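Q: What structure does this chain adopt?
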Amino acid sequence: MTDALDLDALWEDFHRVVNMTSQELADWLRVRDADERTEPLPEEAGTPTGKHVLAILQKRRTDLTEDDLRVMRKVVDTVTSEADLENEPEPERTEEDTRRRHRLMTLGHDPLKATR
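A:
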């Protein structure tokens, strides 16, 4: 298990980059998976990582598993490398910006929402 200082730093970093509430993320995962032909059951909506982020948001720090910590590191690394946290929110200009925003929202980060 990660030591207490590393866990505290990871917890803070994760909650800094994940700027969507658990309800906003759950709603987004359901919308993201809905299409004209089919819509999954609400508890089955979303990517595996998106569902894991949602589960982490609903946990206390003391209940985190090693798998949770791995996903948290992945989310922090991905959002930090793909998002401009200092200059958000910035409007979408291109289709690629929209795809990037949607990809980040699946991880719980909405670039158009001011960071905490």
